[in-house]
User: Fold this.
Amino acid sequence: MRLLLTTSKGMEDIAKGEVENLLSGLGVPFRVEEKPLGVEGRVLAEVGEAFYTDEKGRKRELSVSTYLNERSRLLHRVIVEIASERFEGIGGDEPDLALRRIEEFVSELPVERYVKVSEPFAVRSFRKGEHKITSLDISKKVGKAIFERLERFGRPKVNLDHPAVIFRAELIGDVFFLGIDTTGDSSLHKRPWRVYDHPAHLKASIANALIELARPDGGSFVDPFCGSGTIPIELALRSYEGRILGLEKYRKHLRGAEMNALSAGVMGRIEFLLGDATRLSEYVESVDFAVSNLPYGLKIGRKSMIPGLYMDFFGELAKVLEKRGVFITTEKRAIEEAITENGFEIKHHRLIGHGGLMVHTYIIE
Ligand code: SAM
Assistant:
């Protein structure tokens, strides 16, 4: 089976590592590839059949897609691949031609192997790049091709609101994928624990990528701009045994973070503090790891405050940080100045896609 796995751009290697780790636990042969056909934000896993023994000693098939949906912290979707194809030059094709190429391709695929004809289905599409067609055009054409193919075997049903099976069609540049979306309509990064919705919250998948980059070893950990608590909550959910702190300047967000932690069942594991990160040393004498999604001045506050805020914060961080920090922001110049002026070294930099922006991510020591 080939599984097409989606995540944020720029963290495919970290997601690949997580998937390899999870699949190793199943004892099946597998191969994981980052950016299949050069597509960013995608990971492909080829996995052999997995089995488990039930309570009566019978050998049962284990659904690898369900296992990944349940266990992954970095993936957004788990899609069982039906086919993938490169359509050279599709970006320049007139709409009729582009859609005909897609329809002809899909109509030859044995979709009947993936769905019972009696099961209501829907097609959801995703399109990225320069094309003369929309994702809605793709959904309609792919839906028509699947319907006509299934009609050979019975009476297919379409249900766009409550489908039993979701086909996912993606056209990214000139690469087309079709698969069965086993995740459903809500992406895995939308965590069920989120009862307080901060206006600038971090995707939980990215929070986990930052935690992976920080490699916390059981030592104390702080998110000094914790907002709704995404980073400390996700760390606590990984059964982290060290001390976890979340600092936030505004009471409303801190209350929200506490509500989220309560909902996630980790309230007892995190110390939430109302306070100012530019006075960090007043709250903690020393801390091993600091990981944070810094204010960008876009949704909250003013952009002109950012250089001063970063300079003051990293000055404080220099007094308390023992091991490693990981920070994410759009404000490249301000963070790099604050990092170097305060005696830290940038050990790693990468860009991660978040909310339509490519965001700068740093590991510092
Ligand atoms: N990662 C968070 C989440 O997922 O909800 C969002 C963090 S948001 C980008 C930055 C947060 O920093 C905001 O909640 C803002 O109120 C807080 N903040 C701004 N200035 C602060 C300061 N001086 N000290 C502590 N928190 C501050």
User: Anything to note?
Assistant: The chain has two domains: 2-181, 204-364. The CA atoms of residues 115 and 165 lie 7 Å apart. Residues 198, 200-202, 225, 227-228, 230-231, 247-250, 253, 276-278, 293, 295, 300 surround S-adenosylmethionine (CB under 6 Å). The radius of gyration is 23 Å.
